[in-house]
Amino acid sequence: MDIIGTSALARPLIGISGRRLRGAAIGAPHGFADAPLEAYLSEYSTSVLRAGGLPVHLPMDAAPAELVERLDGVVIVGGDDVDPRRYGRTPGPFTPLIDPQRDEFEAGLIEAAIDGAVPLLGVCRGAQLLNVVRGGTLHPHLAHGEGESHGSYAYPRAHRVHEVRTAAGSVAHALYGETTRVNSFHHQAVDVPGTGIVVTGWAPDGIVEAIELEGLPVVGVQWHPEVFETDPVFGWLVDQASARTTLAVVSATQNVA
After folding, report:
1. What are the pLDDT digits (tens) for 192-215?
2. C-alpha angle with apex 49: 124 to 126, nearest 5 degrees?
3. Which domains does the chain have, with CATH numbers?
4. Would the pLDDT of 134 be above 60?
5. HEC string of 31-71?
6. What CA–CA distance (Å, rounded) separates 13 from 164?
7. So which residues are the catalytic ones?
């Protein structure tokens, strides 16, 4: 059997995080309204598929490190606010419902991916949590209408609201060029970067829109690239995951030989 050939052709396995809901959210019948369920917006999985990866859901009850050990790449999706207590603040009047279990699970996924050099993409909340995991802080609330980059649900998901300027030499610059236009659905953003976090994209009002982790294939974006028909950041993630997998297969084959 050609071990290298067989493995190299396989789609890299990309894990996608989700959120814990109740059956009532999908109109479950009486008796199941309080049944736990997990969900993520399917545009994440279709974006991974289009880029050549094989998406899998990451159940919140599993151990993050055990999941990441089996994966070639990870996507931390968008959602509600990260618990402000994780970065030295307390919930304020604009803080929605907080999910400590999700914070803990996804923080574990991020830490395991970094420890194992597994390619990671954080989207919106995912980028914010990445920064918090590295010891950084967030702007607790960006009021709508007070800056070009602040989110509003008045527009369709894929409407590109404002421009993002990227840093030369960054992954973001290689993917999007000097500038790109993005959508905007957030009321928080990266404030003080965490350890090893490099800011690589800014909105016109200076709000952070893209971050990377020095020396590792880790990228966070504040916008929602999954809603576009194609976005190069998913291609980047799958390419990084494929390269890592191929390297591991070659190394294992050489050890066997």
Report:
1. 999 999 999 999 999 999 999 999
2. 15
3. 3-256 (3.40.50.880)
4. yes
5. CCCCCEEEECCCHHHHHHHHCCCEEEECCCCCCHHHHHHCC
6. 30
7. 124, 224, 226
